[in-house]
Design goal:
With 442 residues, the chain is mostly helical. The chain has 18 helices and 2 strands. A two-stranded antiparallel sheet has the order 1-2.
Length: 442
């Protein structure tokens, strides 16, 4: 029987359970955002604001990059977030919810509606003004928060609708990445961009010839691709998505051969010479090494990286980003900020735009029989899911920092994001909590 130390029992196991919980990442993200709001409106306000403007340099005397802490978080740390998004996208396209065109049609079309309508509503408030560049802010859905709320509801939401929301959010993320790539880039340095393309070619070539080492992809992806994109003017986080698409998504040994090898190795381990005093013999050690090698070969590098990086992104990267970017100050111009065109455009874009876009496109798709409503789901439940999609948060905050340079507009957009995310999340939760899970549709 396996023995557990007190640290395993009281610390390691509870932490593992917490970090594997679908709701936990959303809770940590919420706490980080709340802490930022409290600090920004406390006597520590000046310290909080000055902290993100602290500059530090990475590199050598004649070749270095000097940026503020805020830029290192948004351009550097968030590249890891986009890398994981890229891994999820590739996995879903190759063998997940987006792999079957028929099953993927409804969430993809709903995601498109949920991006186009919010952007259009924002432009109704801001067209022709210097704030119209913020049209991309209400297009995004925060997958961590939205899915966290859904999983809080347990079996009140059918599995098919959870899959629908997941596929919709992933398609939405892809749309946001494309928007950032094409519309929110600074002046482009073509020599640096060409170096980026060269490193990307090396990554895809390595994939083709069978290189499976995560270390190799990390060195070329960060030291080459990410750095080149950072210097090119194309937003550096796009490098994260592109690098992820180059990661191998195939196994070296299939499940049948893997199972057979494990049986053989397990049998050899039983017959191997035993050591004394609780140690294993050299022969047993070599067998265990073989088991480890075969286990690694039976997994795809893509899934290994996704599994390893997901907790880091969910519990470190995103909370740091939220803590650095949600600290808006409720000063004397609070009421003026609430009624600004930027704030109203974001609020109505996220809440009304997401709802109208997702529900409207879904209704038309089902009406013309291009696709069916997710099995076991009602229209009322779909309305709840559409409201949850208005929780923009992480990606909306990220696009805000790219869309505006004027601090006043950034604050106004953040007010809109926070208000819309709270209203959308709460109303979606209430609607889904009070809906009945049956096979009928209204």
């Amino acid at each position: 029987m396996e023995k557990h130390s007190p640290i395993d029992y009281w610390v390691i196991k509870p932490m593992s359970r917490f970090m594997s919980n679908s709701i936990a990442s959303g809770v940590v993200l919420f706490v980080a955002a709340l802490a930022a709001l409290i600090m920004a409106n406390s006597p520590l306000s000046d310290f909080y604001k000055d902290l993100w403007q602290y500059k530090f340099t990475v590199g050598f005397e004649n070749f270095n990059i000097s940026k503020t802490l805020s830029h290192w978080i948004n351009d550097g740390l968030m590249a890891m977030f986009f890398f994981v998004i890229g891994l999820e996208l590739k996995r879903e396209i190759k063998g997940g919810e987006l792999s079957n065109p028929k099953d993927a049609l409804l969430p993809i079309l709903a995601a498109i509606g949920g991006m186009v309508v919010p952007a259009s509503i924002y432009l109704l408030f801001n067209i022709g003004s210097e704030t119209e560049s913020g049209w991309g802010i209400p297009m995004a859905t925060d997958i961590a928060f939205a899915l966290g709320i859904v999983y809080l509801l347990g079996n009140k939401v059918p599995v098919s609708l959870k899959i629908f929301l997941t596929a919709l959010a992933i398609a939405d993320d892809l749309g946001a990445v494309l928007v950032i790539a094409f519309f929110y880039t600074s002046q482009i340095s073509y020599p640096s961009l060409m170096f980026g393309v060269l490193f990307l070619g090396i990554l895809f070539t390595a994939n083709k010839i069978g290189v499976r080492s995560p270390v190799f992809y990390g060195i070329i992806g960060i030291g080459g691709l990410w750095l080149a994109f950072l210097l090119s003017g194309v937003h550096a986080t796009i490098a994260g998505v592109l690098a992820a698409l180059a990661i191998p998504a195939n196994v070296k040994i299939d499940d049948i051969n893997f199972t057979q090898k494990l049986k053989e190795l397990a049998n050899s381990f039983r017959k191997a010479k035993k050591a004394t005093n609780g140690f294993i013999s050299k022969e047993q050690h070599h067998i265990i090494e073989h088991i480890r090698d075969y286990s690694k070969a039976a997994q795809t590098p893509l899934q290994q990286l996704e599994h390893g990086l997901h907790p880091i992104v969910a519990f470190i990267v995103l909370p740091i980003f939220a803590f650095a970017n949600t600290g808006v100050e409720f000063s004397g111009n609070f009421s003026e900020s609430l009624t600004s065109n930027v704030t109203l455009g974001v609020i109505f874009g996220l809440i009304a735009g997401k709802f109208i876009g997702i529900v409207g496109i879904t209704k038309l798709t089902v009406l013309f029989k291009f696709a069916k409503l997710p099995q076991g789901a009602t229209w009322k439940q779909l309305y709840g899911i559409a409201l949850l999609a208005s929780v923009g948060f992480t990606m909306s905050l990220f696009i805000t920092e790219l869309a505006f340079t004027n601090p006043m507009y950034i604050v106004q957009a953040k007010f809109g994001i926070l208000i819309a995310s709270f209203i959308g999340g709460l109303s979606g939760f209430i609607l889904l909590n009070n809906s009945k899970n049956n096979l009928k549709t209204e």
